[in-house]
Design brief:
Bound molecules: copper (II) ion
CATH superfamily: Cupredoxins -  blue copper proteins
Number of helices: 2
Number of strands: 8
Order of helices and strands: HHEEEEEEEE
Strand content: 25-35%
CATH class: Mainly Beta
Oligomer: single chain
Strand order of the largest sheet: 2-1-4-6
Length: about 130
């Protein structure tokens, strides 16, 4: 009887502790998620409008994977201090040729699919263009 009683009181203490912690965490979570929601809604339209762009800097294509609609223009801008290209791995879907420092070129692909690409001058540079 004594043992059972002390276990019960332990459970009560634990339950009260959990409830108290849950209340504190719950109210602060609600506050932060409310402010996040309003901020996200107002900032979402901006990125989606001008996203058909690949930038090259530090021998890296950014973003590494870009998804665009079929036939959309993709502008490739070279922000590096050396010439790069934007060349499909399959050798025929697209190839900008040389893009000089500070220059940009545009490609468009109409057929849906995944198109891995690289820089023909620096073959270790890779990215993927996804046509939806
Ligand atoms: Cu390159």
């Amino acid at each position: 009887m004594k043992a059972r009683h002390s276990i019960l009181s332990l459970i009560v203490v634990a339950a009260v502790t959990i409830l108290a912690a849950g209340c504190g965490g719950g109210s602060s979570n609600a506050n932060s998620s409310n402010s996040n929601t309003s901020t996200g809604a107002s900032s979402q339209p901006a990125p989606s409008s001008g996203s058909n762009a690949v930038k090259i800097s530090n021998f890296t294509f950014v973003p590494a994977t870009l998804s665009v609609k079929g036939g959309a223009s993709v502008t490739v801008t070279n922000n590096d201090s050396t010439t790069h290209t934007f060349t499909s791995d399959d050798g025929h879907s697209f190839d900008t040729g040389n893009i000089g420092t500070g220059s940009s070129k545009t490609v468009s692909v109409s057929k849906a699919g995944r198109y891995p690409y690289h820089c023909s001058i620096h073959p270790f540079m890779h990215g993927t263009l996804v046509i939806k």
